Predict the 3D structure of the following.
Amino acid sequence: MALDPARVVSQLRELQELTGDENGAQRVAWTETWDTARAWLDGLLSGLPLERERDEAGNDWWTLRGDDDRAVLIGGHIDSVPNGGWLDGALNVVAGAEVLRRIAEGATPPLTVRLVNWADEEGARFGRSLFGSSAASGSMADQDELRELKDRDGVSLPDALAASGVDLDRALEARSQLESAAAYLELHIEQGPVLESMGLPLGAVLGTYGVERWRITWTGQAAHAGSTPMDKRRDALAGAAKLALEIREIAARVGNGAVCTSGGVICKPGIVTSVVETAEQLLDQRHLDASSLAELLDAAQAASWRFAQEENIEVDWERIWSIEPILFDPSLIDLCDEACREVAGVSHRLPSGPLHDAAEVARAGVPTVMIFVQSLRGLSHTKLEDTREEHLELSVQALDRLADATIARVAGG
Amino acid sequence: MALDPARVVSQLRELQELTGDENGAQRVAWTETWDTARAWLDGLLSGLPLERERDEAGNDWWTLRGDDDRAVLIGGHIDSVPNGGWLDGALNVVAGAEVLRRIAEGATPPLTVRLVNWADEEGARFGRSLFGSSAASGSMADQDELRELKDRDGVSLPDALAASGVDLDRALEARSQLESAAAYLELHIEQGPVLESMGLPLGAVLGTYGVERWRITWTGQAAHAGSTPMDKRRDALAGAAKLALEIREIAARVGNGAVCTSGGVICKPGIVTSVVETAEQLLDQRHLDASSLAELLDAAQAASWRFAQEENIEVDWERIWSIEPILFDPSLIDLCDEACREVAGVSHRLPSGPLHDAAEVARAGVPTVMIFVQSLRGLSHTKLEDTREEHLELSVQALDRLADATIARVAGG
């Protein structure tokens, strides 16, 4: 009847044996390997008094009825990217299954407890992530676009879903699953270097960053590298170079975890004998606070206009994508922080750079929190992804404590 | 018997009608259109007491015997890039033909005077420029590589040359042409914005820039744009951005016409969600003074090592190509300056960024100078290339004066 954190680690290794290969995890959603993984996960919970359900979006639910219909949810995803890591996603649901088993083997809980395995968090096959959780949260507004998506073999998303028994037109009916939800808990590897650099195993996640993603085009004038004096040039690369450096100053000024990245610059004509005529620059800015995110963007745009003037070039901004910050529930963050402290002695509050299913659930209004466990070297989405076994075990314990504390808090009103 | 500068302009327009199309000049070396242009040029000199010769490298020579075998050479090239301008190359030889005609119609000159039309200055078909002049100068050391060159249709350079009656194995025998040379004069459009920006029609060229051309590879670490704090990054683009800006400070510090260009940066993985792992940067540095050129390179390399340390990334330098500065003859530069001043009232001394056949002749030890005439908007190698007619006429007059002054100077000892 006791929690067995070490069993979670050996189960994760078993899953990797079953569904991975020498290149890493291969649990890509809407494939046979994913089906194998989902059936294996269900097997972990056999013999327990649980209701099983696959909803209209392909999410799997295991429900332990309690004294009250209000439910505490524990969630994650067993799908992975191709050649992925053994922990991203799978840790969440395997640890969640262990916690659910521990609770189910005890007295009837005061609240209903449910484990959910979200369908297609990664979006690896069709390029659309958070499929199942965005259907359940009701935020899936792009069904017309989804209908047009094809994988690299030309198979359409609706056809692949149908092969797994999911009807895209009915996916949003999964919204009913969250009607009784009183809280949502998710454990995940950090996928970043913060906890490792602080020497900490665990942290409480404050929310997921808001993101501003832009394409910035600088336009100058191609000119011969030999015959054009320096003061006669209109060099598009100069604008991009200044901005690539300036966004770091802006991030430092705004602070509080602000990150700004220029992921690349494409130069044309891009030859050694010509001044650059156009430089197309990628920009990604993230912050947990909406007004700080707006400040990052405003400062970068203002700087770009100043640089354009200084360099006698033009600059044009085109938004690629954006999302607002999604904050987790303050009292659940406190509970999570306590749970981490109880099992590891220390904790740390940090934002999440990547999005997670938890963000979709939080957007739907369900009080939500995540636990992060340290990632070695911050690596993820590669077979090199790893976490120390003792940290994995601590994370299972923390999730267990957090589940108990959340049940008690919600049941106590 | 008088010089007729206006005729040169109308002859150049006639040549463009004969060998160009709506996309510009098409006088690409080792093509039928080039043969047409060469025959047309010969026709300009019909009826004069000249010796005609095509040398072993395909260069055409017209020789007016004087009282002395020592020869003053006037040269240029009638070949163009595809979709090129009406003046690049052709101005030199058509103006030279007019000057030679004027001299030939007068009394026997004290020195021999020769016009040369160099073969394949542009290297447009096979990517190897200065073919004929480098054969005559003896600097053509890459015949094994030349044998392997193919055009876009797969025709080899030796086969194309053979079709024009040139045997690559004998091309270096053209060296004998320079044995009697006492001076070499070449008129060319500037192909840059300097004279136009100063409001000057003509200038005396000091020599051709030395060039250092490098590929610089910055290596950092790919990292997630959302989960990697700013102080944990090793951003390869930061190194490239700093250097792209620093080379401008270095050029300003070294001065005297120094130019430094970063023609492009290729970023990998080059996606919006990742810090840049490798940035491959192109660098081109030029100066007329060899020690200043070395200073440009030293300063850029030292800066790059500093930036690599600051950013905790690596930097690697790989030389693509280099050439030393080639200085023209000081007393011919003085004569050229005087000739420009006589016809235009003002002159200016300036270096040449691009290479020219004149550089090859100077390397062979022949006292050499060039006249530059203003280019509108600095444009060349495009059908938009242009120069005002009054400036073209002034340039023909200046070449004529310079030829007379050079003959007098050499004949006078």
